[in-house]
Amino acid sequence: MTAARLPGTPRRWAVGSPIPISTPTSATTASWFTTGTTENTDLTVEGAEAVSPATVRAFWTHLGGYGSIAEKVYARVGPADAFWWLSRERGADLERRSMWMLRVIDAPAAIAARGFPAAVSLTVPLLIADDLRPASSGRWDLTVAEGKGSLTPAGAAAQAQVRPAHPGAAPLVLGSRGLAALYAGTPLVTLRQAGLVSGGSPDDDAALDAAFAATPYMLDNF
Description:
This protein is α+β, with helices and mostly antiparallel strands and 222 residues long. The protein is built from six helices and ten strands. The relative contact order is 0.11.
């Protein structure tokens, strides 16, 4: 493990992992911060990227070595990062989590741009009520297949003389908040408890949970 001083940035270091060419590389950026009148008390890991298990352990072991001189070591990592599982005992806690807002502006375009599990296949009727985006409102057929999704007007199947997947099925009713939360991976049971969706069926709930399952997060800070 080597460390190189970044030019023009006092007490800011880029930490790299020199390993054989046949093994994926890694890089970590860390900064010292001052608490009160004492300099260099906290070390913050602003970014950490690696692929191989050996490299992940190498740079976290390296940074952990600063424990003798740093009062605290902070790291910006994802909820499923290997970092949480490297120690035998829980040696880290969640210090801060910032929430962001999500608003679906164009429902059909948003569904088309979103990825879905390749093994999930479904067609579920939806009734979207969005007062600020009339183009997104109305009855839709949500279809997911082969990792892609589409949202088509409910009458499109009839006009194309295609038999609907669930003729006469009660649609899942949701507004802009419910749609945004579903899009981000919130389970249907949570949305129902919060009063953000109604209608639909237990089978549709299970299918939608499988299709939209996700733990969205962002490591960038701005």
